[in-house]
Amino acid sequence: MERFQKLAREVLGESIQILKDPRVGFVTVTEVRITHDLRHAKVYVSIFGSEEERALSLEGLESAKTHLRGVLGRQMRTKYLPDLHFHLDTLPEEAEHLERIFNKIHEEQAAGSGIDQDPEAEGSDGDAG
Question: What is the pLDDT of residues 43-96, one digit of tens each?
Fold first, then answer.
């Protein structure tokens, strides 16, 4: 199953890049999960742009679904061809948001406790001999 998912991610990723639909912006296929019976595939995509641009890109992907499924079918050569279900992958944005929160916490802790001070400078005051 993993082999099919990897192949689907690669094929769909390449095929989406060459779509001529102006609604489809900068789209990256981040993951494909195919059911064991090969009937359905959840295609997770990361889309660069505003909320409106993301929505338009998803519309474009939905309208290109039949074409993309055909391209995938020529590469997979399986008894069944999965129906494609596109989902916006929000993990990159969530990770970025968490990173900003952690950085802010770290900066606040550093400012409040003097973490950025040179540790050798602190120890040298009491080492007179």
Answer: 999 998 899 999 999 999 999 999 999 999 998 888 889 999 999 998 767 777
Domain 2-90 grouped into CATH 3.30.300.20: yes
- Domains in the chain: boundaries: 2-90
Find the distance separating the first CA and the last CA of the chain, reported in whole Å.
69
User: Are 51 and 24 in contact, with CB atoms under 8 Å apart?
Assistant: no
**28 beta partners:** 46
Q: What is the model's pLDDT at position 121?
A: 52
Q: Work out the widest C-alpha separation in the chain, in whole angstroms.
A: 82
Question: Around Cβ 38, how many Cβ atoms within 10 Å?
Answer: 16
Give residue 63's Cα distance to chain centre: 21
Q: Answer whether 21's CB lies under 8 Å from 60's CB.
A: yes
**pLDDT exceeds 90 at position 36:** yes
**Number of residues that this document lists for the chain:** 129
State the residue for tokens 């296929």.
Answer: 29
Check residue 46 and give its pLDDT.
93
